[in-house]
Amino acid sequence: QVQLVESGGGLVQAGGSLRLSCAASGRTFSSVMGWFRQAPGKEREFVAAISWSSGTTRYLDSVKGRFTISRDNAKNLVYLQMNSLEPEDTAVYSCALMLSGSRFDSPYEYDYWGQGTQVTVSS
Fold first, then answer.
1. How far is Cα 98 from Cα 92, in angstroms, rounded to an integer?
2. By three-state DSSP, how is residue 52 classified?
3. Beta carbons within 8 Å of 40's beta carbon, 6+ residues apart
4. Which residues pair with 105 in a beta bridge?
């Protein structure tokens, strides 16, 4: 029904930038797309979310002003532009699709997940 594929991860020095992409196939109308990250030994953490239809965005406090989530409805693509990266941002980043729900910051509200892409920020 729905498939999500992330790309764009890699190794970057502190202060650098990366742009992650998430390609979505299937039914994505009236949904929320989110980005989450998980560092080794830690639980999955909400990073950013966007409404597919309205473009409304939400962010983790620690990434506000540094990260920007956006979408291209025609191409079924969601992006996470990450600037001023810090070593603390190192994690596997995954995109997710919420078909229905209200808690955009909870991974349990999302129905589909991508495989994840590694982001490593060196100091």
1. 19
2. coil
3. none
4. none
